[in-house]
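Message: A physicist's question: would you kindly supply an amino acid chain plus fold tokens?
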Amino acid sequence: MSGGLSPRPGWTTISLPPIGAAMADEDILSRAVKDAADLFPAGSRVLAAVSGGPDSVFLCLLLKSLAQEKAISFSIAHIHHGLRKEADRDQAFVKELAGALGVPFHSRRIRVPAEANVEERGRILRYRALSDIARRTGASALATGHQQDDQAETVLMNLLRGSGLRGLAAMKLVSPCPEAPDIPLVRPLLGIRRAQIEDYLRRRGIRFLSDRTNRSLRFFRNRVRLEFLPLLEKIVPSATAHLARTASLIQDDYDFLSREASSAFSRIRLPPFSCVRLSRQELNRLHPSLSRLVIRLAIERATSTRASFADIERIRQAAKGHGTARFILKKGTRAVVTQQAVVCVPSRCPPAQPEKLAVPGTTRLPGFGLEADVRTVRTSPGVFRNKDALTACFSPRRLAGPLTVRFPKRGDIFHPLGSPSSLKLSRFLRNAGFSREEEPFVPLLVRGRTILWVIGVRQSESGRVAPAEPRVVRCRVRWLNPPQVENRPASMV
């Protein structure tokens, strides 16, 4: 049923306080507008996620006020979950609200399967639908009505689950949308209490909906909201505000550690870059806090899903040991701890199509995780040495025909530079410390059927540079897609 007061049965145009008018101290809308002004740059096109509850109704009032003050626009999106008999009523209510505010309305019906964790699955599908609406409507940001009580509840829930800093950091004012990291998710109400919002709406006769499932103690969040947090408020007044402040402080700490982890990840990553391969020795030299974050980056880069603490810790402990180990992670991704490396190999096999290189020129090879630049350069007389592991130089006399990058094939033969004879490529890779899971992901530079370079690992005798050659063909590769630390928002129902 509807909560709040309504002096008339239907919506008319909602009147807002005049911009610039003197406001009473208790007018939280004016304060919220002031605090949110910097979150939405001029020209922003905001999509507001609106359920019809008090928080999302207040969010609409805030965005309407901002639209009057700044050159921004907003529209309303409602997701119909189909889980409650009131769902049709909720959608009609939000559509009516959009009409009263004079803004576009969008809706999407999702089907939440009957699973053990309906809340989590519903959250994923909801954000996926909202992201799709945002893209289709050209929205530059998604806004939600999460407020300070939600933040405190999230901190407590994650604390009770045994979360690390990422979970205790809870929700940020601005973060990547969970199902679409390219879309900013803005939460402008995190500094306002739920009771303040409801009181504001009731005193002004602005209607909102009440969800009866929010009173059910079957759900973990509701038990925290209705039982645990009120008890804490009795013991420690302002406990909700203190928990929200703790989340803000932890966010700063976690951001710093994440940047350090990103730097360490880049520093200890080993070729080939078509899978995630870390130096085991260097990983073990890191502080445990950084080591866990680096392993998390490796897992999430390979799986594109959130890494669990159990998987991270299993890999970390195996890397600290003396033997080797293999694990199956989410989506069939395999984690392998070899004597030299910690590797996360995606379940999907790499593409088999070879790609020709521009000579001279630069060629992007996203399927191989590389960009290759090939040039003819002058060199000094004497014994020639490559500059680093990602650079290989060849004699121009031995490079007749196109240069191609491909992955290994059955029966490949390789003659390592400095070796007296050839051997099977698979044997060479095994001797070089690669596991059988990694072998299909090792990129090769070839000319015809001849392997010139196991990229980033070893060059072939076939392209050896003679001491007196004045010029060489230099191939320099660069790793594509450098690691980005995603400050993913904590789960919200």
Remarks:
- The radius of gyration is 29 Å.
- The chain has three domains: 2-240, 269-345, 355-479.
